[in-house]
Amino acid sequence: MSDKLALLQHPGGSLLSHKHECCKWRSSAAQPRKPISWSLICGLMLFCLGMISLFTGHVASDLEWYSQRLMKRRSYFKLEGINKGPIDIWQSDYAKYFYGCSKRSRNFPLAIRARSSNGYLLIAASGGLNQQRTGISDAVVVARILNATLVIPELDHRSYWKDDSDFANIFDVNWFISYLAKDVTIVRRVPDKFMRSMDKPPYTMRVPRKSPPEYYLDQVLPILQRRTVLQLTKFDYRLANNIDDELQKLRCRANYHALRFTKPIQELGQKLVTRMRAMANRFIAVHLRFEPDMLAFSGCYFGGGDKERNELGEIRKRWETLTDVDADEKRRRGRCPLTPHEVGLMLRALGFANDSYIYVASGEIYGGEETLRPLRDLFPNFYTKEMLANEDLKPFLPFSSRLAAIDYIVCDESDVFVTNNNGNMAKILAGRRRYMGHKRTIRPNAKRFGPLMMERDEMDWDTFARKVKAFQKGFMGEPDEMRPGRGEFHEYPYSCICERPLSDVVDNKRGDPRSEQGNQGLRERSKEEEPALGAKENEA
């Protein structure tokens, strides 16, 4: 590219040669003029035309070269006519053109064994289940960047969620280790004999958020090599979004394949999905973040009068750095989560009938049943894990992360996934559902919905529904919403979504990814990429 830019700047050669010719012309101006022949004039004209042609030719070729590179990148999820007309609210008509692809390339070197690695990497993940999930996926990539042996990550026991579950209580450790064996060496713990031989305890540090690979190589690797055992704390969103495609694919392998829930969680989650399917061929999963602390932190007002203002105001005092905010202004700017009632109105306006079945995934809802009643009135076929699981849920009740894992499974398996916010679970599931076939995923267009919900009493239903449909274009989980570099990679895993050859896109029962047979075929192909579970764990 640099040589092409040079030609654009100096079409006829070096700038110095032009100055030299200019000076010669000026110095000859003082000498007696000689007759200028027509052949010389014609020659100069031809020379100038040649130079113009040369210049424009280089510009054209340069623009063509650049536009080809640009189009190659921008055509990555570009489909003619997509989102221009009415869409199927239950599934994307364009999903069949794309598939999740995270298979390691042949040029990606095998993992370095523990004895040959640069040391042991300890990770302390933070936050709730899905925040920790991002940290674990990124930790796998960081271990690869550092050529380190990854120790099974520690989960956060001190956050708001107050769950003392360990990694092995939520995720299948053997599967995690064996699935990533070719990418990263993973062990359950640092060998005891090695720990006893250490003069100092493991070095602890916290890296800045969204640090690029260069930071880890320049700042973290020297410490790891010097101390051999290194712990990174508060590890969530500590790796940059934009990294090498092979590392991005490793991110996807860790998140979408290696992190598999334990058998008890998986079985109960699938049991709830089966019970929903027994009642309806298709269902909607709604993830509601409407906990008291979350609402208090937002500073928004949800129509509960002085009681709400006083209760949430007291909770808000826990954060000394928070200042007073204008609740109406925040809502007008789309900074407030939708209420359960507003989520129901959005779904009805989009065209979901009131006999649709919905599964509500949530923690503690502020206001309880009173807050949920408007949503239940709009969709009487309303179910939660507590309603479906009955006694089966009892062993999980003391553990918020395990309960969240059950909700995660049902939301992932739903035909339509809807969220009232853009939190960690919403992002993680949106990315997974894109990777698994662009299953319909609806997130509110917050900037437009804030003002609309404030003005909904001033318009009739048809006007409101028309506006909702218009505002939601681009927020329905269609493939063309993917853009390289857009948002968090865990929400938009663009490096792990490939375009299917047109010859493979056939609308028959076996080939159509939207059919049950087609989905079965995709599942069979994905299983072929997974290693046998009986693989031995890596030894130190």
TrEMBL record:
- Region (Disordered) residue ranges read 504-540
The reply to whether Membrane figures as a keyword in the UniProt entry is yes
Basic and acidic residues: which segments have biased composition?
Answer: 506-515, 522-540
**Superkingdom of this entry's organism?**
Eukaryota
Q: Which InterPro entries match?
A: FucosylTrfase_pln, GDP-Fuc_O-FucTrfase
Q: Which keywords annotate this record?
A: Carbohydrate metabolism, Fucose metabolism, Glycosyltransferase, Membrane, Transferase, Transmembrane, Transmembrane helix
Q: Which ranges does the record mark as transmembrane?
A: 36-60
GO molecular function ontology, one term from the record:
glycosyltransferase activity
| One GO term of the biological process aspect | fucose metabolic process
The family assignment reads: Belongs to the glycosyltransferase GT106 family.
- Name this polypeptide is given: O-fucosyltransferase family protein
Species of provenance: Gossypium tomentosum (Hawaiian cotton)
